[in-house]
């Protein structure tokens, strides 16, 4: 299920003194099964873009084709877009409202008009993916859980719709390190085991470096960089000019290189740094 975004422009409050061009002629293609990170400073247009991909917003001009279907056309129903594209908003746990976890996760699949046994199967699968035991948690109130667990329930609610494309807006924001790692691990599994196309909006270069095959950088409503992490993280000046940065460990590797260590410049994760440093010290010993 490929996504083709063609010359997308979105202007908020057009024709008023508050007019704002949030997307400016954006063209991007995303292939089935890709894991794409969308990064950019606040106000760069990331949320506006992802809300077009799940049909919440319509463009002023341009279009989006998902597997050849023009989802920006008025004839396409929102419900058919929702079947293909799941969107996990920022702080999705604020949208939990049912008295039990099972009922909350069932909400989306029920709206798809599925039979009860199919809904239960989907709830079980979704809870397994996010690491919550069905029997232990299904009858609990979502409000009894920790922040990280609540968020996993909210993500399970979207995952249970079994979309081919999953968009997550800052899914680790505000979580402690353990909560962050759990969520990142769940997302990596979703991508690997279900071959979902994932679009991850993130401020954390560390998260992006760990997971993404490809990075899109937004600035002032335009996509200014598009490439593999190794290519994007080499663009330190451009990233810093638009208020972004490379992972902290990449800065460390560059400093070590400047100091004369024979270290690769393509260090973007702690694990890569660990391997590289161990091999350097082994050769020195
Ligand atoms: P990001 O997600 O990267 O922070 P947004 O897509 O939210 O960026 O915003 C892009 C631009 O559009 C910003 O200048 C923002 O102020 C403006 N904007 C976003 N939503 C609205 C809205 N509902 N009404 C008017 N302007 C908006």
UniProtKB/TrEMBL annotation:
The keyword Glycoprotein does not apply. InterPro entries: AAA+_ATPase (IPR003593), ABC_transporter-like_ATP-bd (IPR003439), ABC_transporter-like_CS (IPR017871), ABC_transpr_CbiO/EcfA_su (IPR015856), ECF_ABC_transporter_ATP-bd (IPR050095), EcfA2 (IPR030946), P-loop_NTPase (IPR027417). It comes from the Bacteria. Coiled coil: none annotated. Its EC number is 7.-.-.-. CDD domains: ABC_cobalt_CbiO_domain1 (cd03225). Residues 3-245 form the ABC transporter domain. SMART domains: AAA. Keywords: ATP-binding, Cell membrane, Membrane, Nucleotide-binding, Translocase, Transport. SUPFAM superfamilies: P-loop containing nucleoside triphosphate hydrolases. It is a peripheral membrane protein. It is found in: Cell membrane. Belongs to the ABC transporter superfamily. Energy-coupling factor EcfA family. ATP-binding (A) component of a common energy-coupling factor (ECF) ABC-transporter complex. Forms a stable energy-coupling factor (ECF) transporter complex composed of 2 membrane-embedded substrate-binding proteins (S component), 2 ATP-binding proteins (A component) and 2 transmembrane proteins (T component). This is Energy-coupling factor transporter ATP-binding protein EcfA2.
